[in-house]
Design goal:
- The protein is of the alpha+beta class and about 575 residues long.
- It folds into 2 domains: about 210 residues, D-Maltodextrin-Binding Protein, domain 2, CATH 3.40.190.10; about 190 residues, 3-Layer(aba) Sandwich (D-Maltodextrin-Binding Protein, domain 2).
- Helix content is about 40%, strand content about 15%.
- Strands 8, 9, 10, 11, 12, 13, 14 and 23 form an 8-stranded mixed sheet that branches. A 3-stranded parallel sheet has the order 4-1-5.
- Helix 14 runs parallel beside helix 15.
- The longest helix is centred in the last third of the chain and has 54 residues.
Length: about 575
């Protein structure tokens, strides 16, 4: 499975520009999905947009083979503007850098949910005119957008209500945090709990994020695991989850999600101390901390398990399979986990209108699909283009009768994608004949065994794509097998999984205490050798004097012997 090679809707890409904002001749940028260049947008000529975004978090590279386009270059061309594009490694770096710059330096930033709360509380963001985000409003997944919009900051608005993030942020990407693992070394059932990171059977198998907030999630959930288990049992009242009706199960998960959120919001002195103890003990069992290397380390086999954001998990799963057919899996533990949202925001003094134009540009269905194809994370945009992009990554979107199918070939007539088809009451994968011709009869179809048939494994994406697809098109994918199903669940988690997640809100007044705790946890790893050195130094001082005294005595004895002779 290689999602990058399956994005094949006659993608025509942009050539890289020599410099940002340079006037471009029309023949320098080929058409994209269309037979001619995109129509230019007037009214912004000569303006500059300064963007501050996470590293490798937008399609800004031209790669014809992979189907990547330079969205920054395209925006510059269409709007006749210059884009100054800067990147950060962590959201905390972004926050610190913002505080060093003058107001109005950045026009558009992309922080995470908790940081948006902090920036609102500190009055560092412009309130958005949401009426100018027409494209974003039209194509954003309604349920996901609503969740972000309704999140609250701590400060009050002019009406005495807590300020809502929907007034200050336009969603970009979102996802969960969980465990990615190699099933050849880690048992699936062990990943159902965060206990797996403390399991000595997996000594030095795993790495975790060098991220205060993400790792705090693991620590607080492990610290209060017994309480969470107990309260889940109370909700079940002697019943098993699998025995609940859909209505009962939904009610159970709704109640548990509130409990989980309450635990996530614990950051008092006692809670911080407990998390410190949990994370300090955890360090003795893990391979180490990482920021971005873990997604490749698990592919290379350096580690067998990793604390991963869902987008990185999808990347690792795809790359591992495409490079060596190694299968990796992703799990959100049953105790719950963090669900996160990254969004575009306008710092004070920003160029609002050009920023709105950029957000709408990225929300265009075609460009959103191309962007998601490059990044791998899950977009807020849930258009038909996005659905048509992701569907071939994981399986068939519908079953065809008789000889109906689709197949996509490159310029050399090499098959690069084909649908799962229902042909003469059997399931087949389309393949070309020896002359490279499209298949016309059963002889040129590779049969899929009934065991691997996706007939009973439909995956409903209506939670995301409802009302955003044509009326005659269902938002359902039929994964090829369990492996593809797991990857699809990482990309678009089920509603049940989402209800077992909560947002890690800003720590507020406790932030400094958490920072100190985290620095102590991290320093502990490297302090042991220093203590050893210190002890050795302290011990060496008296030993040195003892040696000098001994040497002096010996010198006197030697001198006496010489004198006697």
């Amino acid at each position: 499975m290689n999602k990058n090679k399956i994005f094949t809707l006659c993608l025509l890409s942009l050539l890289t520009l020599g410099s940002c904002g340079e006037q471009v001749e029309e023949n320098k940028i080929p058409a994209y999905y269309i037979d001619e260049l995109p129509e230019k947008v007037s009214g912004f000529e000569g303006q500059t947009l300064t963007i501050y975004n996470c590293e490798d978090y937008i399609s800004s590279t031209f790669d014809e083979e992979e189907g990547y386009i330079d969205l920054i270059a395209l925006f510059e061309y269409m709007y006749d503007v210059k884009v100054n594009y800067y990147t950060f490694d962590t959201v905390e770096t972004m926050y610190n850098q913002m505080n060093l710059q003058n107001e109005g330096y950045y026009d558009l930033i992309c922080p995470s949910d908790y940081m948006i709360q902090r920036l609102i509380n500190e009055d560092k963001l412009e309130k958005m005119d949401t009426t100018k985000l027409d494209v974003y409003n039209k194509y954003a997944a309604k349920n996901i957008k609503t969740t972000l919009d309704n999140m609250e900051a701590s400060v009050l608005d002019e009406n005495g209500n807590k300020k809502k993030l929907g007034d200050y942020a336009a969603g970009y990407m979102w996802g969960t945090m969980g465990v990615i693992y190699d099933p050849n070394f880690v048992k699936e059932e062990d990943t159902y709990s965060w206990d797996v990171y403390w399991d000595t059977n997996y000594y030095k198998y795993a790495s975790i994020k060098n991220s205060m907030r993400d790792t705090y999630v693991v620590g607080i959930l492990h610290a209060y695991k017994d309480e969470l288990d107990s309260r889940r049992n109370e909700l079940l009242n002697g019943r098993k989850e699998e025995d609940l009706s859909k209505e009962e199960y939904d009610e159970y998960l709704d109640a548990y999600s509130k409990i989980l959120q309450e635990v996530f919001d614990r950051h008092g002195e006692k809670d911080i101390k407990l998390v410190k103890e949990e994370l300090s003990s955890l360090k003795n069992n893990i391979y180490g901390f990482e920021v971005d290397s873990g997604k490749n380390d698990i592919i290379d086999g350096k580690i067998k398990m990793n604390l991963a954001w869902s987008g990185d998990a999808v990347y690792s799963i795809n790359e591992a399979y495409s490079s060596s057919e190694k299968e990796l899996y992703y799990t959100v533990p049953l105790e719950g986990s963090n669900i996160w949202y990254d969004a575009w925001c306008l710092p004070k003094g920003s160029n609002k209108d050009l920023s709105y134009a950029f957000i709408n540009f990225l929300s265009d269905p075609a460009y959103a699909a191309a962007n998601m194809n490059y990044i791998g994370y899950t977009s807020f945009i849930a258009s038909e283009d996005v659905f048509n992009t992701i569907a071939p990554w994981y399986g068939a979107t519908e079953y065809y009768n008789d000889d109906e199918y689709y197949a996509v070939y490159d310029d050399n007539n090499e098959l690069i994608d084909a649908s799962m088809v229902h042909y003469n009451n059997k399931f087949y994968q389309c393949i070309k004949d020896s002359q490279g011709n499209l298949p016309t009869n059963e002889e040129y179809f590779e049969e899929v065994s009934e065991e691997d048939s996706p007939l009973d494994e439909s995956y409903d994406l209506s939670h995301y794509f409802k009302d955003l697809l044509p009326e005659d098109k269902e938002s359902v994918i039929y994964p090829f097998d369990e492996y593809y199903l797991n990857t699809l669940e990482a990309q678009y988690p089920s509603v049940n999984t989402i209800k077992r997640c909560a947002v890690m809100n800003d720590f507020g007044d406790a932030n400094d205490d958490v920072v100190i705790m985290w620095s102590q946890v991290r320093a502990y790893t490297n302090m042991v050798p220093y203590y050893v050195i210190l002890i050795c130094c302290l011990c060496s001082i008296p030993l040195y004097f003892i040696y000098k005294i001994y040497q002096k005595i010996n010198d006197k004895k030697l001198e006496k012997i010489i004198n006697n002779k």
